[in-house]
Amino acid sequence: MFEIAELGHTVKKSDYKKQVPELRVKLLEAQQLLRDCDFPVIILVSGVDGGGKGEIINLLNEWMDPRYIRTNAFAEPSDEERERPRFWRYWRTFPSDGFIAIYVGSWYSDPIALSIYEQIDDLQLKIELSNIKQLERELVADGALIIKCWLHLSKDAQKKRLKSLEKDPETSWRVTNKDKKHLKLYDKFITVAEQVIKETSTGEAPWLIVDGSDIRYSSLTVGQHVLDRITRHIEHRSNHCPEPGAEVQPAIYVAQQSLLDTLDLTLSLDKKDYNEALADQQARLGKLIRTAREQKLSCILVFEGWDAAGKGGSIRRITRAVDARNYQVIQIAAPTDEEKAHHYLWRFWRHIPRAGKLTIYDRSWYGRVLVERVEGFASKEEWMRGYAEIVNFEEALTEHGILLLKFWLHIDKDEQLKRFKEREQISYKRYKITEEDYRNRERWDDYELAVNEMVTRTSTQQAPWILVEGNDKRYARIKILKTFCDNLEEKLSD
Amino acid sequence: MFEIAELGHTVKKSDYKKQVPELRVKLLEAQQLLRDCDFPVIILVSGVDGGGKGEIINLLNEWMDPRYIRTNAFAEPSDEERERPRFWRYWRTFPSDGFIAIYVGSWYSDPIALSIYEQIDDLQLKIELSNIKQLERELVADGALIIKCWLHLSKDAQKKRLKSLEKDPETSWRVTNKDKKHLKLYDKFITVAEQVIKETSTGEAPWLIVDGSDIRYSSLTVGQHVLDRITRHIEHRSNHCPEPGAEVQPAIYVAQQSLLDTLDLTLSLDKKDYNEALADQQARLGKLIRTAREQKLSCILVFEGWDAAGKGGSIRRITRAVDARNYQVIQIAAPTDEEKAHHYLWRFWRHIPRAGKLTIYDRSWYGRVLVERVEGFASKEEWMRGYAEIVNFEEALTEHGILLLKFWLHIDKDEQLKRFKEREQISYKRYKITEEDYRNRERWDDYELAVNEMVTRTSTQQAPWILVEGNDKRYARIKILKTFCDNLEEKLSD
Q1: A238/B389: higher pLDDT
Q2: Which of A123, A141, A385 minimises the CB distance to B123?
Q3: How far is B428 from chain A (nearest CA, A)?
Q4: Do A96 and B338 lie within an 8 Å CB cutoff?
Q5: Nearest CA of chain A to the CA of B359: how many Å?
Q6: Beta carbons of A346 and B400 less than 8 Å apart
């Protein structure tokens, strides 16, 4: 979920100085329009300590007209507040139509803190989050625009940031003991944060996860996102239709760096090493799968990736190690008539394995947010809703105890073209290449955007996405086999 | 919540015989149209044992074309089912577009049973219900029509029904030991059922609560409701807008009997008894309120009722017994500009009392589902959403420990006119009567419908509606004072 936000995005000082004035003008214009609108804007700025929440809120106030913004910071509740229901303190501060309220610390702070310090358990956290969703749903139903930004730092980045704040006498006061304690609790914090973001990234009020390691980058990203969301909301409201939800990434983001670009596609294995590793891992898998069968552990593997990225070959390397009675490979192509006449998840629910079995989906429910999104087969409203539906669906699987792994096979554009050409030369592979494959290539960037968003929204500790460097087929196959074995081993030892 | 379903509605055999053929024709026509629609229909028939679930499902199958209906009954899960996530068994059975699926026993059965037998606690029940809401929301978002019917019987009616089933050798097999056990657990069952219905009566998939004491009445009501919902859904889908939700009462229902008609408006007190009781109850209230203050128990009283029903006078009889520093009366009239620029609940949240204080709302958030509904100040979508929002809001209050009571002051139309005329004669009361009051009288039936629905949807054990017979002011005032005292006493002794 935080993969993209750890890529270390930066904006050069000169670029920043060029971009800020333009952004400010646009923000002020949007604010001007907003003044006459019949809805309020609620901006939450949350995230890890040292992620730059304070700086960003200061900048937002500086960039916009402060007469129509109010910033609300919540610490310990006052006695006035303690004597009322929990949400009372927030209701007091909700902005009027046409106004913006920024929240540092919000209805999310308590559940997160209580959960980290184990004062509430997972079940209670779920209830809290369900109350929060209800609150946000009611506000949105009434017209409000809710913008939620989460500033992320990797563990190392957080350590570095807190150190540098501490050194500088002008900022050292900002590092509290609580911050240092949080640093110790980083892993726990991230686990809780992931659950919170996953549960509450609804279609109507999604989280934007922002790389907080460079303040110029993060402030521009948040500023641009706020601008986009307000502009779009005004547009939709004046057309009397609700905003269908918001993409996670504002343009600035993806233009700069894609998750897929960070993969080292030169990784490879020579034939000898490959053959040895293949034999080892397949033997290992065979044993593990038998144990899984005995222990009634079911597994689901999802394969997605570019055309010709090597999904089929990778799947065969797995299935060869498994008794044919114990697995099923589900090829997902266009839905049947009967499938089309159901909810789009219905056809995936059908094939959920029985206890102890393995089901491999060759393409999957992610079609909703990949091909259906890019080709327009699903409406924006449908694929936006899809993320939450998918996360929810996968949670039903993992909560039942199923091991679920999702592989994205990545190759670059040149490698794809090379493979297309090769396939056309081989008689029994020629049928695999059609006009459509070439057409899909043209929308490479759209797909890449969709993949980035998919991973950000749906990669969780329970059901992670594994990005596989696929230019070398041998490397890819071994990485997949090994990852599956490692996860299986860990799960079986639980 | 079940008040209306205990009025003992009946339909005469001759009326039934006249109405059924017409209903059948219309149901078949609707089903014919449905065949070409791009959505499925899911009908849940739940409720108390002996409430006639089986009979009604048989009738629905008989009345409609069985080729396009499938009935799903769920008992103990099979091993196939147990080996998959819990909802898998339901996903398997979801109907295709154009088809109807009827469920006896559904995703509600387990949570209810587990909760009654205390195998899950309140928190776990909430999680289950939140998963159910998520499931239903996803189906509805995809276009599905979900119709949920709850067949209710009072404790006595259930006892009678089970006895008569047991006596008849043709039906005795239908009374299981489980049923008899349930009878013992009736109170517990009703408490759980109320929570389930309250939590899951969403705008998109509300429950219809049906009086199950007369099978002719209940089957006609359910049949009519199914017809209405399908017809309306087809209409809305063909206009490409989602159905805004469904009223609880189909027409047949209200035409027959209103909750307000059951009140005995001849109840009265003579002056002497009144004076004595007033002195007693006010003294009692004074003491109780002081204890409440010490124990930091806050109270909220809501007063709604017909114009001139005596809200103001009743409120004054309470406040006279309370130290002026400890209570506030909030008069709710048209919202201020600032209030209008917020969510409609904002102006009620503002006035939530501090610990140990009493707040009385003279008219309240119920305006949303009364005057705003009837006069069209709120859109249908808004007031339909209002029930869930109100229930949620009140839950935040009662969960915080606040004592919340809601009074509906009822008078009949003649009494109202009499009081209008009287007020016009008294100089200092003349200002209270305006053109508007006469206009409101004309919409009496619409208001009565709205009141019935309001009580059904929002009267809960935690925050009950108390219907007050108001033709005699003295009787009404004492009933209110006494009810408040009784509840306060009980709450303080907890």
Answers
A1: B389
A2: A123
A3: 37
A4: yes
A5: 13
A6: no
Which residue shows structure tokens 């054990």? B461
What pLDDT, on a 0 to 100 scale, did the predictor assign at position A202?
80
pLDDT one-digit tens code per residue, A448-494: 989 988 988 898 888 999 999 999 999 999 999 999 999 999 999 87
ipTM of the complex: 0.73
Q: Which residue has the tokens 């053959």?
A: A275
Fold of B262-492: Rossmann fold (3.40.50)
Contacts of B397 in chain A (CB under 8 A): 85
Chain B hits for A97, Cβ within 8 Å: 341-342
Q: Report the residue of B142, B295, B399 to disrupt the A interface, i.e. the one with the largest count of A CBs within 10 Å.
A: B142
CB burial of A288-298 (b: ≥16 within 10 Å; e: otherwise) equals bbeebbeeebb
- CB neighbour burial string for A352-370, b if at least 16 within 10 angstroms, e if fewer: bbebbbbbbbbbbbbbbbb
Please report residues of A whose CB lies closer than 8 A to that of B141.
Answer: 385
CATH, domain range B4-256: 3.40.50.300
CA distance A286 to A292: 10
Question: Looking at domain A4-257, which CATH architecture does it have?
Answer: 3-Layer(aba) Sandwich (3.40)
Angle between helices B177-184 and B186-200 (to 10 degrees): 80
When pLDDT is averaged across residues B234-243 and rounded to a whole number, the result is 71
Mean pLDDT over B16-44 rounds to: 91
Q: pLDDT (tens digit, 9 = 90+) per residue, A367-394?
A: 999 999 999 999 888 888 899 899 989 9
Q: Where are the domains of chain A?
A: 4-257, 262-493
CATH fold, domain A262-493, is Rossmann fold (3.40.50)
* Record: contact A385-B349, CB cut-off 8 A: no
Q: Contacts of residue A397 in chain B, CB cutoff 8 Å?
A: 85
Q: Amino acid letter at B309?
A: A
Minimal C-alpha gap between B351 and chain A (Å) = 10
Could you tell me how many CB contacts below 8 A there are between chain A and chain B?
110
Q: What angle do CA A310, A316, A321 make, to 5 degrees?
A: 140
